[in-house]
């Protein structure tokens, strides 16, 4: 996609590292947040929203160009929410609409609990909250198995098992392309951080449902219209049931913002205007 909005970048110091971020456009602030995904895959959506918003895209700790001083420290939703709070405060244009996808949706939920004054509306797109599901014990065991396989050095095998659990399958050719022999050292480090220090703490997070019910932040629970019956569809609907929030459908699947950025941007605008 040809860039139309100039991109500025910077870093914000946090107590145990630095958080890299990019900013495009002007207008009300919207933050696009992933975990473990960094800012790159949000690029097309960010360009579209930058026509009438200031769009903030940070890299989560331990991924992309964000660093941590202790690579053996777990990345928790609370830590990532504090990082995001520091970046939003640094930008100085809050409160923000926060669109968090996958683990980034969980980061956003933690922010809505801890620093609600910084997030006016949270669009929590497919948060993978396994502890809300009836088969949580099975899912814990399957997550342990994924990490165990990764720890043997079988990255592709771990990804296969992750796909089996989540329903986010990749064709074998794509797996070999993405996780074969020739890989960027930064991508290898990102995978290592995710499997060893983030997967369990994110999907195993147990938010205070009372705190989420009490937050002044408007919470929108987003589900891909192609995600029916998959893991994150189930977790998102379980969260909606707990909070008495009817989920909102967004175009595409778990990565709808990459698959259909134009339609996804239109839906984001509809949601923001409705609030």
Would you give an account of this structure?
The chain is α/β, with parallel strands linked by helices. It contains twelve helices and nine strands. Strands 1, 2, 3, 4, 5, 6, 7, 8 and 9 form a nine-stranded mixed sheet that branches. α1 (43-49) packs across α12 (261-274) and α2 (77-91) crosses α3. The longest helix is centred in the middle third of the chain and has 16 residues, at 136-151.
How far do the termini sit from each other?
30 Å
Largest sheet: 9 strands, mixed
Helix run count: 12
As a percent range, the share of strand residues is 15-25%
Provide the helix percentage. 40-55%
Give Rg in angstroms: 17 Å
Number of strand elements: 9
Please outline the helices and strands.
Elements: E1 7-14, E2 17-24, E3 29-33, H1 43-49, E4 54-58, E5 67-68, H2 77-91, E6 96-101, H3 103-114, E7 119-125, H4 136-151, H5 155-166, H6 172-179, H7 185-197, H8 199-203, H9 209-214, E8 218-224, H10 231-243, E9 248-250, H11 256-259, H12 261-274
Parallel strand pairs: 3-4, 3-6, 6-7, 7-8, 8-9
Antiparallel strand pairs: 1-2, 2-4, 2-5
Helix pairs in contact: 1-12, 2-3, 4-5
């Amino acid at each position: 996609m040809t860039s139309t909005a100039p991109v500025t970048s910077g870093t914000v110091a946090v107590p145990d590292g630095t958080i890299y971020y990019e900013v495009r456009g002007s207008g009300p602030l919207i933050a696009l947040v992933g975990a473990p995904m960094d800012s790159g895959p949000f690029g097309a959506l960010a360009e579209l929203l930058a026509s009438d918003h200031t769009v903030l895209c940070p890299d989560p700790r331990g991924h992309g160009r964000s660093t941590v001083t202790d690579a053996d420290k777990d990345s928790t939703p609370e830590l990532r929410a504090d990082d995001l709070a520091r970046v939003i405060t640094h930008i100085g244009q809050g409160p923000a609409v926060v669109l968090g996808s996958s683990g980034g949706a969980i980061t956003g939920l933690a922010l809505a609990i801890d620093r609600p004054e910084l997030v006016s509306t949270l669009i929590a797109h497919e948060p993978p909250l396994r502890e809300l599901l009836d088969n949580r014990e099975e899912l814990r065991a399957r997550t342990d198995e994924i990490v165990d396989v990764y720890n043997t050095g079988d990255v592709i095998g771990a990804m296969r098992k992750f796909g089996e659990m989540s329903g986010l399958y990749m064709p074998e050719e794509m797996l070999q392309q993405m996780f074969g022999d020739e890989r960027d050292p930064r991508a290898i480090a990102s995978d290592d951080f995710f499997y060893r220090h983030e997967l369990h703490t994110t999907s195993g997070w147990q938010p205070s449902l009372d705190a989420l019910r009490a937050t002044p932040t408007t919470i929108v629970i987003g589900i891909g219209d192609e995600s029916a019956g998959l893991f994150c569809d189930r977790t998102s609907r379980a969260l909606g049931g707990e909070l008495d929030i009817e989920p909102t459908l967004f175009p595409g699947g778990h990565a709808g913002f990459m698959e259909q950025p134009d339609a996804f941007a239109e839906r984001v605008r509809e949601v923001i205007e409705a609030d």
